Amino acid sequence: MRRLALFLLLATLFIPASAQSTTPLTLQGSKGKLKAVIHKPRLASKKSKCAFVLILHGFTGNKNETLLEQISKGLQQRGIGSIRFDFNGHGESEGPFQEMTIENEIEDVKKVLNYVKSQPWVDVKRLGLAGHSQGGVVASMTAGLLGSDQIKALVLLAPAANIGEDVRHGSLLGTKFDINHIPERTMVWNHPVGRRYIEVARDMKMYETAFQFTGPVCVIHGSADNAVPCKYGKKYADGYKNATWVLQKEDGHGLGKHRAQTLSTIYKFFEKKL
User: Fold this and answer.
1) What's the sign of the alpha-carbon dihedral 50, 240, 167, 254?
2) What are phi and psi of 207, to 5 degrees?
């Protein structure tokens, strides 16, 4: 009996671990195929599960931005899985940019989330969202719609909450238009923005939807952000019931000046909250 017990103990110690991996993949989105990269951390065994984060880029951005890659790799090293993907009309994903809206980006997130939940190594009770700029708005609204039963923790990086307010005043990221006669196409940063994008941004209940989320939130914003003034991130932080506000002094929209500190804050937040 002692030999059997010793054998069983040794067997549990030598269960093969599940290797770390970084894998490109294609998923179905709201407007066609989405290109993604999934980061799986090293797990204790093939039956182990881990916390997982969806990482969302901003307007005209893509999954391969340095900030997003750094978040993914850092989480992976800390035993947390993640996925980065290009929204419809962005990067390598399908769909005309002109048809992209915040509304259908939320649908993209939901479809990616369904895929993530189907992975046997993902702990579906420990899911997080991290979004930069417009991706922050999408992350906040998605978390509000799904609730803390499905999303456990949320990180907003320079969330572009000014989009709705600016659109209602006939402006989008510096481009002016007549809000009473919205054109079918408006060129913004050399990208064709469709009429529907502006209509959705004008009418969306951004804060009302976002603040339905009651889980922990970390909002990080640069004080020198010229694209999205930091007052918008502060309004997010003040509106949540359980939020941490981090103001990076003299940092810009890309949060590059204090990148190491920003990344450390993100890692520690998800390690603690997921």
Assistant:
1) negative
2) -65, -40
CB 220 within 8 A of CB 262: yes
Please check whether residue 150 is in contact with residue 127, taking contact to mean a CB–CB distance below 8 angstroms: yes
Q: What is the pLDDT of residues 7-59, one digit of tens each?
A: 444 444 444 567 899 999 999 999 999 999 999 999 999 999 999 999 999 99
250 by Cβ neighbours in 10 Å (0-12 / 13-18 / 19+) ranks as exposed
Is the pTM higher than 0.90? The answer reads yes
Q: Determine contact, residues 57/135, Cβ cutoff 8 Å.
A: yes
Residue type (1 letter), 223:
S
pLDDT by residue (tens digit) across 208-237?
999 999 999 999 999 999 999 999 999 999
Q: Are the C-beta atoms of residues 56 and 36 closer than 8 Å to each other?
A: no
Are the beta carbons of 85 and 68 closer than 8 angstroms? no
C-alpha–C-alpha distance, residues 127 and 198, integer Å: 30
**Rounded distance between C-alpha atoms, residue 69 and residue 177, angstroms:** 35
Q: Rounded CA gap, 136 and 151, in Å? A: 14
Residue with tokens 């294609």: 26
Eight-state DSSP code of residue 99: G
Q: What angle do CA 252, 254, 259 make, to 5 degrees?
A: 90
| Helix then strand then coil, % of the chain, to nearest 5 | 35, 25, 35
